[in-house]
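Side project, low priority. Logging it here so it doesn't get lost.
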Amino acid sequence: MTEPIAGRSPLYEAQHALRYERQALIRQYQEDYSCRLVVMMGPVFPYSVTLFEETLDGASPDQDLHVMLYTLGGDGETALRLVRQAQSRCRELTVIVPDQAKSAGTLFVLGSDRIVMGPTSDLGPIDPQFQLANGSLASAKAIIAAVEDAEGRVQQNPQTYPLHASLLNDITGLLVQQAKDAIGRADDLLAETLACVDGRDENRVAELAATLREPLIERAQSHGATIPARYALELGLPVEEPPVSGAKWRSIWRLWAKYFDLRSQYVYEGQTASQIG
């Protein structure tokens, strides 16, 4: 007869069985690749700092840290804080991108020593995201474009003002200004994040920032623009592409599938920590 694990009642263990299964896969990955692995999923906003710190409890600066990251974006300033937070708690930072790491997620990736990507991986433009009153995310460029388009249409036909006012009900003048400020800060955030890697001197940071500015800030017109592994490698980023049939990518994908199936708003999980909302 199988006894419940010490400290867990049978019902509690059953209720959290999937969590224990994910954490067992995390511990197996850590053993296989001699690192600490944590998972971070969801929008990147100031609350992320505290939740991420929970996963780093007890982390050793002499150990490599791997972060499995999935996010459609968020606040760039928070992304920079998270990078500094991660780099201060490890010997070398690797970010694993099984699916998407957009906007603020791309910034976090740029502050890592290594990036693990596969055929499903996707980075994107550095276009800050804002959370609207209804809980949805909107990019800074989209907010500004929507307001400018509405202004133009109202000038052409003033009678449409009530319609456009209702369509942009969640967008305030303050939000528009914040969006403009965030876009204006993108160049500095790019350089500051790249500089978080100890192995990059000032010349390398400047070189990478100049190379990345056009595809990540200037040229991209849509938040949905994609940067796959091969393109990221061409841009000079430290990308590793494990064979999709190899043990490493298979273990990454097996773990990612567990988190994909959660369909939670956010997940911050490690070998002992688990915050899901």
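Brief comment: The first helix runs from residue 10 to 15.
Revisit when time allows.
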